[in-house]
Amino acid sequence: MVKVGVLGLQGAVREHIWAVEAAGAEAVVIKKVEQLENLDGLILPGGESTTMRRLIDKYNFMQPLRDFAAAGKPMFGTCAGLILLANNLVGYEEPHLGVMDITVERNSFGRQRESFEAKLAIKGVADDFIGVFIRAPHIVSVGDGVEVLSEHDGRIVAARQGQFLGCSFHPELTEDHRMAQYFVNMVKELKA
Ligand code: GLN
After folding, report:
1. Are 28 and 64 in contact (CB under 8 A)?
2. Is 150 part of any known ligand binding site?
3. How far apart, in whole angstroms, are the C-alpha atoms of residue 114 and residue 35?
4. pLDDT in tens, the chain (192 residues)
């Protein structure tokens, strides 16, 4: 069985744990750097990217997370987690982890649509996935090695670049675990 961690500094952590377990993998909440060591994959949850970044720095997670990525291990960023993965953020000089070749804009669906649900077609996942968007970012553009998996209203809301998977919405907030299953399958394939 593969072991998937969920970074547990802030945000929607529990729901990802349940989703990963439902997808047939072992799930662990990661609160300390040492726990990264024997993981096969890691989820960066949704929440508030600026708060998460502050806690990443406070608990010295930045370099270990970059090392985790450099080791080729799979990482899945949802919402704020997507913002953490991106190597370019609209309006910011520096990215956070900066490991995935995408440009992301924060809070980009506008005030009137602070949160909403939308039925999404996600390549390799489902044609009818209900995406829960909460002050969601979107992917403005992707680099050469990045595959766009889903768009909504002409905006990219899910993408994959080899070991990296990212989405604008919160797949863990519904009972539909097909997105978690997609990531768990990625983790299994990359481990094998
Ligand atoms: N708006 C948040 C941010 O910029 C992301 C929202 C979320 O993760 N639901 O970090």
Report:
1. no
2. no
3. 34
4. 999 999 999 999 999 999 999 999 999 999 999 999 999 999 999 999 999 999 999 999 999 999 999 999 999 999 999 999 999 999 999 999 999 999 999 998 876 678 999 999 999 999 999 999 999 999 999 999 999 999 999 999 999 999 999 999 999 999 999 999 999 999 999 998
Task: Tell me the C-alpha distance between 153 and 169, whole Å.
Answer: 14
CATH number of 3-191: 3.40.50.880
User: Do 181 and 95 form a contact (C-beta atoms < 8 A)?
Assistant: no
Residue that has been written with the tokens 């000089």 in this structure: 93
Q: Which atom of ligand 1 is nearest to the CA of 46?
A: 8
What stretch of H or E contains 144? none
The DSSP 8-state label assigned to residue 106 in this structure reads T
Paired with 141 in beta bridges are: 103
Which residues 6+ apart lie within 8 Å of 93 measured at CB?
A: none
* pLDDT the model gives residue 111: 67
Residues designated catalytic: 79, 170, 172
Three-state DSSP class for residue 178: helix
Give the DSSP letter of residue 171: G
CA-based torsion, 72, 78, 79, 81: positive or negative? negative
Instruction: Measure 48 CA to ligand 1 centroid, in angstroms.
Output: 5
